[in-house]
Write a structure and sequence with these properties.
The structure is a homotrimer. The first copy, chain A, is of the alpha/beta class. Chain A folds into two domains: 4-203, Alpha-Beta Complex (2-enoyl-CoA Hydratase, Chain A, domain 1), CATH 3.90.226; 207-250, no CATH class. Chain A is 44% helix and 16% strand. Chain A contains nine helices and eleven strands. In chain A, strands 1-2-4-6-8-11 form a six-stranded mixed beta sheet, sandwiched between helices. The first copy, chain A, has a three-stranded mixed beta sheet with strand order 7-9-10. In chain A, helix 1 (32-44) runs parallel beside helix 2 and helix 3 crosses helix 4 (148-169). The longest helix of chain A has 22 residues, at 148-169. The relative contact order of chain A is 0.12. Chains in contact: A-B, A-C, B-C. Chains B and C meet through helix 4, helix 6, helix 7, helix 8 and helix 9 of B and helix 2 and helix 4 of C.
């Protein structure tokens, strides 16, 4: 049975989506087709209606994702052109789309979060681990280095010291070690419950505001924002959401953001 | 009673200054006038004589600073021009002046350190928390995103992972959580005592040296230093302070830096 | 007895090298001649045959390195030209050579790791501390600031918050404090044994792969990789090492990387 990556809205709360990495017989190994699905899904998030407040990225069957589906490797890895296309034309666009979306991404990390799985987690905004999580990038054991765009995502999330340890020792870290190194934001006995609770916390506030914050973070990391981006940033001045948030505070009541426009 | 921000020298040790955020009836909420005072004070630190070794930034009445004074918001927030001027013409210059001073800044964080208060703490060199500290940037609950220059300060101090958690979850972290995430350098039962002890440790060494170290850090973070900045750096070669420090070490005695020239 | 820095292969396992900072009567103080040796050794690592998998950097006699050899300072420190040449013509090239090598560097940190010693440790990929380790950059106590190129290495390894604390407080951190601040990757009761075990873990995987990963990290931190660097990266496509790693995984056996070409 081959794997798939699917997007779904939570049945009970449409403000919360899930990207499910589903390949349980292979611990969530990610095939070329699955990387392409992931890119398409991630690229579509910004346009989704009704308002999507956050997306939980998770695996199915107890593992986040064990990495690339190595069974496919002989088809393309041993020629420089097809190899490069795999890394730069298949994986990098998926990671790029994850890093480019304005929708908050919560990684719910159970079991294996390895290689390509770790790269996906690195592109999320929040990483919640379960005690059984094991994180690593042991790509060296397969006889090859991490591709530049993938290492860029790992480096941005985990820093020079973290990336060096992950790649050179090429081992797996348990949840406590990953927390100590700040690869995880927190560890919870039930990562699914904590990811859900986190999504609920995020959904209390306007989706438009979360998206604006992610946009500004991305602009800053790219050296900006530019003058037009600055001007655009303050376009929220007269918005219903802005007026309601300030008014509610001054009136000592809870804000009602249901008219928020993403 | 409206708030104020004041600068004072320590009564017992003029080498140590304090920037006091004083608005106790509002948990240290910062008005437009207070942001302007903060900018003026921070911009004046480099020129202060006699030698100022460090400045403790603290609140009055048990809180560091609860953020902007929201009572003023209706006056200017709902028009893009006055909104932008508030963030870029009032707050950003204060944060910039804090980040631009060469004088070491120690944040003494008791109680609420929230929103604009967290932004001020992010501009300090050392952050000492008390167990009752709670840190956060729940600006999303007010229906608007963090302005770019303010997020730049938060990002520089707390990194991508920290900034994302603060802004997207929009909650408050207790002292232990803030320490684990390295938002605080340390936690002490009495933050005022520990800030004072830290200021004393800093004051043992020449003020000119601390300032040079901060200058070099700033140059490096801006992509430099330039060749003239490099040449200027080594201008201390023949200084009394330099000669005394090296001589004292070689003579197995404590150095006497009282002739240090800032 | 003057000190020296020497390179040696491990007697039992030629895949592992050691850079030994040997000046035990001065706690590993580093003279001008020793800095020059360090530069020469570090610059020679990439070309070493047979395959060198990693290098442990360590002290002799229970200390990593206590910093520069201050007895030499009166010879050159009090003139701007000779001072600058010492920092930029002697120390900076040694640190640069350490940061430029593709061979993984493991700092085995016992006892004093101070000043120039901390700068060397900052240039390593992994830092393993012993409980007796004490780390710091108390250069201010000598009456002068850290030179820009040295601070650049400290900043890259320990971040703005870590560098500020090290330089402004100018104290020494014990192993637990250094671990909490992520100056150390881990603490082990016997740092030599743990450094050795780490080197063994690294040596299980191809040296060519570790080197490629370090090269990509360096390219990313320099703003790249460039298009030629990207193309070169994927040159491993048809290599024996790559084929063996993938084949071994698919055949459920341990890979045999003994034909790896560095």
């Amino acid at each position: 049975m081959s794997g798939s990556i699917r997007f779904e809205r939570d049945a009970g709360d449409a403000r919360i989506g899930r990207i499910v990495i589903a390949h349980p017989v292979k611990l969530g190994a990610i095939s070329v087709a699955m990387w392409r699905s992931l890119r398409d899904i991630a690229a579509s998030l910004d346009a989704m209606v009704p308002t999507l407040h956050s997306v939980i990225v998770c695996g199915e069957g107890g593992n986040f994702a064990a990495g690339a589906d190595i069974a496919e490797f002989p088809d393309f890895r041993f020629d420089p052109d097809t190899l490069r296309d795999y890394h730069e034309g298949v994986i990098a666009p998926a990671l790029h789309a994850l890093r480019a979306t304005d929708v908050p991404l919560i990684a719910q990390i159970e079991g294996a979060c390895v290689g390509g799985g770790l790269e996906i987690a690195a592109c999320c905004d929040l990483r919640i681990g379960q005690p059984d999580a094991r994180l690593g990038a042991p790509v060296a054991t397969l006889g090859f280095p991490m591709a530049p765009d993938e290492l860029a995502a790992v480096l941005a999330a985990f820093g020079r010291a973290g990336a060096a340890e992950l790649l050179l020792e090429a081992g797996l870290l348990d949840a406590a070690s990953a927390l100590q190194r700040r690869l995880l934001h927190r560890v919870a006995d039930d990562a699914a419950s904590e990811a859900w609770a986190t999504a609920q916390r995020i959904a209390r506030n306007p989706a438009s505001v979360a998206r604006a914050n992610k946009r500004t973070l991305r602009q800053l990391l790219a050296g900006g924002p530019t003058e037009p981006e600055r001007a655009a940033h303050f376009g929220y001045a007269a918005s219903v959401t802005h007026r309601e948030g300030v008014a509610a505070f001054l009136e000592h009541r809870a804000p009602d953001f249901h008219d928020d426009q993403r």
